[in-house]
Amino acid sequence: xxxxxxxxxxxxxxxxxxxxxxxxxxxxxxxxxxxxxxxxxxxxxxxxxxxxxxxxxxxxxxxxxxxxxxxxxxxxxxxxxxxxxxxxxxxxxxxxxxxxxxxxxxx
Length: 107
Known about the structure:
mainly alpha
């Protein structure tokens, strides 16, 4: 494979990670929001009344759900953490691959 093909492969792979992570985050954050509403209303208020807030995204990234020590939240929230980290890693990979292809590095 040429260097350009590798850049394209990493770029497409990164976009795939972003898409799968976003899908996971959207589905899981809604479910976690309902669980928090029912079991931990104070935590739900701290995250914001509406789902998909930046505060909630950071909550998943930092795995702050562990402090609740609730197995029903942990079972769902671990998937949200995996999804948010795959979005971050995918965005970084796609950005670096695109930058490398634009600068001609590795050609």
